[in-house]
Amino acid sequence: MTKYSLKFPNDFILGAASSAWQTEGWSGKKDGQDSYIDAWYKNDRKVWHNGYGPAVATDFYNRYVEDIDLMKVVGLTHYRSSINWSRFMLDYEQGIVDEEYANYVEQVIDTMLANGIEPMFCLEHYELPAYLLDKYGGWSSLEVVDMFVNYAREVFRRYGSKVKHWFTFNEPIVVQTRVFLDAIRYPYEQDTNKWMVWNHAKNLATAKIVKAYREGGYEGKIGVVLNPEVTYPRSSALHDRRAAEIYDLFYNRVFLDPAIKGEYPEQLLTLLKGNGIDFEPSAEELAIIKNNTVDFIGANLYYPHRVKAPEAEWPRDVPFHPKKYFSVFELPGREMNFSRGWEIDPAIVYDMAMRIKNDYGNIEWILSENGMGIENEVQFKDENGQIQDDYRIDFISRHLYHLLRAIEDGANCKGYMLWSFTDNVSPMNAFKNRYGLVEIDLEDNRNRRVKKSGYWYKELSESRCLIFDQDSEYR
Ligand code: BG6
């Protein structure tokens, strides 16, 4: 079969992503340093697959030297994680730093740099301190926003000269959507008002941190990692297109627009008001958002969203939920990752790239997460014990193909970060679905073993060239 190839731009990032809570484990953690996720795991362990969770995770805290060596083996140019806010401070209100944890972060950064791997950090990847959730209601409080900004200032002061890519949040919409809209995660509270208050607090926090970063004169970039959902209407009929448009307002533009354009979409504000959501940000807050938009964004892209006009009228006595305006549509015959229950459609990457180009001023961005979680991967081991994950190589290749095509068409995308470097802990699913280029063996002291995809990624990163079959061109 004829082979084709596409070149990566010279400065293109080929990295991988994870987060603090999904890898580090609790070694060295002090009383009172629980994050929201830790509290969830402690309070509701039964919903975590086979009881695994953040307590040990991959034990990165103790094994980072070994892991950074493995980052070289699999050819990462960059690695994104988070700094765990709940552990970085001993006292969030007084801003007293836990020097032991801060020193660990410094060691990780220095070891990565010494090995030629650039670190990137989020300041929060669901690691809201549990203490601040209990005492202040979390992001319902503007005092928490200010504590977060102070923490960010301290992080920049310590590491700002070494780390050049910063993100305020990872997927800032997720926690409040699962907790306050859908009420399917701890502490299971339905409150759509609160959902919007949290969205706004996080938008405000991003803007305030962008301002603080610029005032500090650091030589790097600051942005936010979002999970914009590439949303397709079932059909071209007006009612389906309207469903997709409204979905986009509530789940995408609520963060994309303030971060990049500095304002909320008017249509969103009208819909909130029309549905009794009491959202009245102050003029001062809106001005901060307006004047401090991000340098770049990360977009986490895994699967397409498909919606259609709502199947039924929204019941009067049920609190407002954006589902009033849409129903989920499942495309017949869709390609699936059945382990995760997510559709696979690599063209989402091209479509998002064109959207960022056309609707968001072609702002610089990276594809900050994309990957494939597969259950029971040990079944794919060869006689030497190496996982033969050709499906992952295929998944990555096809998404990269669409990304490179978009770059040829003018997209301002500077990199691809795979989720994930090693297998790690997912919210609730824990180690059920494996995402890594490197296996974590739970039966054998969490030992690491590079999968077939890990060596393939190394080759990709060195050759800087994606090879694909002729017939894969249109997939
Ligand atoms: C992203 C998150 O949405 O998806 C990660 O940033 C998460 O934290 C990843 O682990 C994969 O999803 P899941 O639910 O399978 O872990």
SSE layout and pairing:
Elements: E1 3-7, E2 13-17, H1 20-23, H2 36-43, H3 60-73, E3 78-82, H4 85-88, E4 89-91, E5 96-97, H5 99-114, E6 118-122, H6 130-136, H7 142-159, E7 165-170, H8 174-181, H9 192-215, E8 221-226, E9 231-233, H10 238-261, H11 266-274, H12 283-291, E10 296-300, E11 305-308, E12 327-328, E13 336-337, E14 342-343, H13 347-359, E15 365-369, E16 374-375, H14 390-408, E17 413-418, E18 433-434, E19 438-441, E20 447-450, H15 452-463, E21 465-469
Parallel strand pairs: 2-3, 2-17, 3-6, 6-7, 7-8, 8-10, 9-11, 10-15, 15-17
Antiparallel strand pairs: 1-21, 4-5, 11-12, 13-14, 16-18, 19-20
The structure holds 6-O-phosphono-beta-D-glucopyranose.
6-O-phosphono-beta-D-glucopyranose is lined by residues 19, 170-171, 227, 300, 340, 369, 373, 419, 426-427, 429, 433.
What's the CATH superfamily, by name? Answer: Glycosidases
Q: What do the pLDDT scores average to?
A: 97
The assembly state of the depicted protein chains is: single chain
List low-pLDDT spans: none
Q: Span from first to last CA?
A: 16 Å
- Tell me the β content: 15-25%
CATH 2nd-level architecture: Alpha-Beta Barrel
| Percent helix | 25-40%
What is the number of beta strands?
Answer: 21
Rg measurement, Å: 22 Å
What general outline do the C-alpha atoms trace? globular
- CATH class equals Alpha Beta
Based on helices, strands and strand pairing, what is the structural class? Answer: alpha/beta
The largest β sheet comes out as: 8 strands, parallel, barrel
CATH T-level topology: TIM Barrel
Bound molecules: 6-O-phosphono-beta-D-glucopyranose
Q: Strand order within the widest sheet?
A: 2-3-6-7-8-10-15-17
